[in-house]
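Worked problem 6 (solution included).
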Amino acid sequence: MNILEVKNLRKRFGDTEVLKGVSFSLKKGEVLSIIGSSGGGKTTLLRCLNFLEKANSGDIIVNDKTVYSAKEGEKPVVSQEAQLSFGLVFQQFNLFPQYSVKENLMLAPKLRTKRKDTLGQRETMGEISERADMLLEKVGLTEKADSYPCQLSGGQQQRVAIARALMLSPEILCFDEPTSSLDPELTGEVLKVIRSLKDSERTMIIVTHEMEFARNVSDRVIFIADGVIEEEGTPEEVFGNPKSIKTRNFLSAGKEG
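Solution. The predicted structure is:
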């Protein structure tokens, strides 16, 4: 069963069409890596999936329920469940500097619990605190619970950001080049945490420039160029035997660089 279906997603900024009819599906527990050159539409696609940008047209369906639907010239229809379907880990960590690590994790669930239109059961503060402790242990930062972001390395901050995204239990966890802001020696610790999430069969979409990581962690890979999906397949197909000239050129440039 597909947990996600994206149908003919289009996005313009002014006269520039960045996404030109992107369609793909994803099964529960799969890891999808999205690769491609800068400006090809990767991050815009991820932002549209997380409703940080509104696609001009197309549909986003999660668990057979349409959470976003738009037609050219009409106001998009966004379901109440839309924001709960996806979690996003940004390139920049976006942690609140005035809050401790654990407080950063607990903030969004606490706000959600207070909302009158909360879907599902409301959590107690004790349950939220317990879940924060569990996730900090999972990303190896239990001892940093009372520290502040300025006291952490870049790799530690990104691991906190991953735990924070998991606090809302999203159906699909998205990463926007999660190691691009890190020094090379810190990249490994973040990639290790992401690999550990795959072991728990969590559904993930990863925009990444780490080709070897994408090859090792993904079930499927999409190569986006000029706003369209140029190639899609297993890591063995896309990296080992790419059919598109654009894909071959992109991968060859990466090897030479």
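Discussion: Residues 222 and 232 are 4 Å apart (CA to CA).
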